[in-house]
Amino acid sequence: MILKENNHREVIDSYNQEDWQPLLDLIPRIESIPKFDLSGPIETDDSGAIKIPHVKEVPVIREFREAVYEIPIMIDFGWVSWDEGRSMARDESFNYDSIDIPTKCKLITAIVRNDRFCEGALSDAFESGLILKILKSIQKQVE
Q1: Which residues constitute the domain of residue 99?
Q2: How far is CA 78 from CA 28, 107, 111, 112, in A?
Q3: What total of structural domains would you count in the chain?
Q4: Residue 76 in contact with residue 110, Cβ under 8 Å?
Q5: Alpha-carbon torsion 133, 7, 121, 89, what sign?
Q6: pTM (2 decimals)?
Q7: What are the E-state strand segments in the chain?
């Protein structure tokens, strides 16, 4: 399910800790994984065509993707042109505790949606620690 932009704040703000638990339960698992992209060298078939998908994700990434749609925290908004979110995600020292949970959900939405167009974007966000930072910040706010 995807939330509408016009009421996403009310819906997300109504969630309690139990609603967030599927994502929060992933935190220790994410912390224990040393590498999120299991891709090897680019593989081709007999004709020389590149085999798709190239990126092979660890299971926790699939579980994360499923949870963000099931809770739901995915938001229908213009994430492609959301420069503020792009700036936050690129700033390694950004303090995610300084933004509210709906804004964190917008960041997650942008990352997950971008992965559909740029294979490996979600794995990269896990690998860089971005997803873990966002989830830990959500955890602080809901506990």
Answers
A1: 3-142
A2: 32, 12, 13, 13
A3: 1
A4: no
A5: negative
A6: 0.88
A7: 3-4, 75-76
Which among 64, 70, 58 is positioned nearest to 26, based on CA atoms?
Answer: 64
| Tens digits of residue pLDDT in 31-89 | 999 877 656 666 777 887 766 656 677 899 999 999 999 999 999 999 999 999 999 99
- The closest alpha carbon to 112, from 142, 54, 50, 70, belongs to 70
pLDDT (0 to 100) of residue 120? 85
Residue 30 identity (one-letter amino acid): I
Is 37 in a helix, a strand, or coil? Answer: strand
Long-range CB contacts (within 8 A, 24+) of 46-53: 52/119, 53/119
As a whole number of angstroms, the longest Cα–Cα distance in the chain is 54
Beta bridge partners of 39: none
Q: Note the residue count of the chain.
A: 143
